[in-house]
Specification:
By secondary structure, this protein is mainly alpha-helical. It is about 60% helix and about 5% strand. The protein has 2 domains: about 1-60, Alpha-Beta Plaits, CATH 3.30.70; about 85-265, Rhomboid-like (Rhomboid-like fold, Up-down Bundle), CATH 1.20.1540.10.
Length: about 280
């Protein structure tokens, strides 16, 4: 095989390799040193992959790359069990207007992202430099951007369960404030750590996990609580993300920051109100 490119970040190399695999272009990634990687291809597809490498280097945030990573993570022959239908029916019945509005916004933005990705990213992703942008809505809007249907589905499933519980327990106004605070905080932490190339509602979802767990501990037998399994899975996912053992490039600092700010907000004095 022929060495065609060297990446200074092995995660970028893996993302690009996943994209090539999804397109039917077999490539091989070999680690060099601590974090570098070399990409190898066979001679027949050398020119095709070379063009893709050049595009990736010029547009590393193009949603097609993250979409490919999520696509490969889900088996093509996956069939949903029949029990999934009543599950979604129960989720739908146990949400509120703001919960459903956020779902609609995320879906619409995902569709628009497929139509005009670069324009939407330029307008809604976090600013490349702070300058005079500290009060910009672009510290909030990355939370509503998703780069693949799987990315969107995973986040919205967690969102509908836990945001729905919060909206029923504490009301729409509280949920709105919670979303703004946790989205901006988690986005800002991720921006400070890695720059503007991130998106997704998972920072808010991790905040919901942390809040629901501590709130449910302080006020038992309330609708707003975290399932132990969900909490364990989210913490394992968080640990694997920082260990760089996941199949996608995750916003680890947004996840961690969201979880912590959720715990902090849950320490506020709340009345154990009846669900609305």
């Amino acid at each position: 095989m022929i060495a065609i490119a060297q990446f200074t970040n092995r995660r970028d190399a893996q993302i690009f390799a996943d994209y090539c695999e999804a397109k039917g272009l077999p490539v091989k990634v070999e680690l060099v040193g601590d974090d570098k990687a070399v990409l190898y291809v066979s001679a027949p597809i050398l020119n095709l992959v070379h063009e893709e490498v050049r595009h990736f280097q010029q547009h590393p945030t193009d949603p097609r790359y993250q979409a490919a990573a999520w696509q490969l993570a889900v088996p093509k022959d996956l069939k949903l069990p029949k029990s999934i239908t009543p599950l979604f029916r129960r989720i739908w019945q146990r949400t509120g207007p703001l919960t459903l509005l956020v779902v609609a916004v995320c879906i619409v933005l995902y569709i628009l992202l497929q139509i005009s990705p670069q324009q939407l990213l330029n307008e809604l992703m976090a600013p490349a430099e702070a300058d005079n942008s500290w009060f910009s809505l672009r510290w909030l809007t990355p939370a509503f951007l998703h780069f693949s249907i799987e990315h969107l589905a995973f986040n919205l499933l967690a969102w509908m369960i836990y945001a729905g519980r919060m909206e029923r327990q504490l009301g729409s106004q509280f949920l709105l404030g919670f979303v703004v605070v946790t989205a901006v905080t988690s986005n800002l932490l991720q921006w400070l750590a890695t720059g503007p190339n991130f998106g997704g509602l998972s920072g808010v979802c991790f905040a919901l996990f942390g809040f629901a767990w501590l709130y449910g501990t302080r006020y038992p037998k309330q609708i707003l609580h975290a399932e132990r399994t969900d909490l364990v899975v989210s913490l394992i996912f968080l640990a694997l993300g920082f260990a760089d053992m996941l199949w996608v490039n995750t916003a680890n600092y947004a996840h961690l920051g969201g979880f912590i700010i959720g715990l902090v907000l849950a320490l506020l004095p709340f009345p154990a109100t009846k669900p609305r």
